[in-house]
Amino acid sequence: MTAHPIDEAPAVTALGGGHGLYATLSAVRCLSDRVTAVVTVADDGGSSGRLRAELGVIPPGDLRMALAALAADTPDVKVWTEVVQHRFGGTGALAGHSVGNMILAGLTEVVGDPVAALDMLARVLGLKGRVLPMSPIALDIEADVAGLESDPRVSRCIRGQVAVATTPGKVRRVRLIPADPPACPAAVDAVCEADMVVLGPGSWFSSVIPHVLVPDLHDALTHTPATKVLILNLAAEPGETAGFSAERHLHVLAQHAPDFRVDHVVVDAATVTPGRERDHLDRAASYLGADVSYADVAENGTQRHDPAKLAVALEKYLSPIPGSARPGNGDRREIISWQ
């Protein structure tokens, strides 16, 4: 584990995208103020897809959500966070666009660097941590999907994150285009220098697995001395993981990155019943070198992770540094509500 000065909190790097990453960031910001988000950049739908197609920028939507999750909770910053998350209504050219997406696209055009643009908006939002793209270029996801042809043994190639996420078939495997994309150097450093790395939850094939398909990021995740924690989804998602058990999620991750190992797998206790189902999941986790923690991490009555409960589940894996200024229970920031 990386050694830090005694006045620094532990470093946490969280990887993912969309609402899953938002939940993780909302949780880990309660445990440390040194949080880095590494975000997928393959979205091709909605406002992000439009800006990507028209301007050639990396899709900003998931990056914007990560910034909002880590934004300061002071009254003046809360107004800016609300503006960044605001989505235009109406039926004109701006309809459906997020203000934050457009700000990031504009900053990127002006300064010529998406990471610099993110850092600039992060300062406006009072972030103590950092939000980084997985890659400095926009990526595409391509998947082999079964069940779309009359012969169930035949797979069809589908391209695009939205198409993969909404397919009525069964996703067998995903690839990134280009096949060996560059990693954001700062993201690689954040993984290597972290005390704890958290992967998931989120859309398994389009937000979680892509991180292990970027060669330099895969190498960093494989060799980092950080404690690695994988958070499983609360339920299979219609489309890309329909019918998947918790065990199956681990198997497909291992298929895409056979040498990838984690230390701990966090699972909501209510989603995997005691008995054979847990035995199978424990066995699958052991192939990744991990133990399984069954905890109450769901928001009551929903299939979303509760950031406060997730923080409790993750806290035991974040070893305190003697004499550190890590926030204690009395200093924890208010959990940001879901946007």
Task: Describe it.
The protein has 2 domains: 1-41 and 182-325, Rossmann fold (3-Layer(aba) Sandwich), CATH 3.40.50; 44-128, no CATH class. The protein is an alpha/beta fold. Helix 3 runs antiparallel to helix 4 and helix 5 crosses helix 6. The chain is 37% helix and 16% strand. The chain is globular and about 55 Å long. It contains 13 helices and 10 strands. Helix 12 links the parallel strand 9 and strand 10. The longest helix is centred in the N-terminal third of the chain and has 13 residues, at 99-111. A 7-stranded parallel sheet has the order 3-2-1-7-8-9-10, sandwiched between helices. Strands 5-4-6 form a 3-stranded antiparallel sheet. Pfam families: CofD. InterPro entries: CofD, CofD-like_dom_sf, Gluconeogen_factor. Belongs to the gluconeogenesis factor family.
**What is the CATH class name of the largest domain?**
Alpha Beta
Number of strands: 10
Rounded to the nearest angstrom, the radius of gyration is 19 Å
The strand order across the widest sheet is 3-2-1-7-8-9-10
Distance between the termini: 34 Å
| Fraction in beta strands | 15-25%
Any low-confidence stretches, pLDDT <50, length ≥5? Answer: 321-339
General shape:
globular
CATH architecture of the largest domain: 3-Layer(aba) Sandwich
Order of helices and strands: EHEHHHHHEEEHEHEHHEHEHEH
Which class best fits the helix and strand makeup?
Answer: alpha/beta
Number of helices: 13
Residue share in helices?
25-40%
What keywords describe this structure?
globular, 2 domains, alpha/beta, 339 residues, 7-stranded parallel β-sheet, single chain, 13 helices, 37% helix, Rossmann fold
